[in-house]
Amino acid sequence: MTIKGRSKDVRVPFSIKQATPSSAQIDGGLTLKRLEWGIGEGVWSDTETVADEVEVRFRFTVSGKKRR
Questions:
Q1: Over the chain, what is the mean pLDDT?
Q2: Which of 59 and 41 is assigned the larger pLDDT?
Q3: Terminus of the chain with fewer CB atoms < 10 Å: N or C?
Q4: 29-49 core/surface letters (b: 16 or more CB in 10 A; e: else)
Q5: Structural element, H or E, at residue 3
Q6: Are 4 and 39 within 8 A, CB to CB?
Q7: What distance in Å separates the CA atoms of residue 29 and residue 60, rounded to the nearest whole number?
Q8: Contacts of 20 by beta carbon, 8 Å cutoff, 6+ apart
Q9: How far apart are CA 50 and CA 40, in angstroms?
Q10: Over the stretch 14-51, which tens digit does the pLDDT of each residue have?
Q11: Strand duo 23-33 + 2-3: pairing
């Protein structure tokens, strides 16, 4: 993953479930330490003001025709 020009390998746990015969839902998330990614500089780097650990969650729905 790359954020603000900083790249790291990350593992993101997720689950996939069939939503309809032609679509699936993907849910997952991870916790980032924002200061490791350069998010929050200057006065915003104070973890008393904004926590360093930030939870990122996502949900995608993908659809398409099945291939045979």
A1: 92
A2: 59
A3: C
A4: eeebebbebebbeeeeeeeee
A5: strand 2-3
A6: yes
A7: 12
A8: 63
A9: 8
A10: 999 998 999 999 999 999 999 999 999 888 899 998 99
A11: unpaired
- Global pTM reads 0.71
26 contacts 15 by C-beta, under 8 angstroms: yes
Tell me how crowded residue 65 is: count the other CB atoms within 10 A of its CB.
6
Tell me which residue has tokens 């045979």: 68
> Is residue 61 predicted with pLDDT exceeding 90?
yes
Residue closest to 29 by CA, chosen among 15, 14, 18: 14
Q: Is 80 exceeded by the pLDDT of residue 7?
A: yes
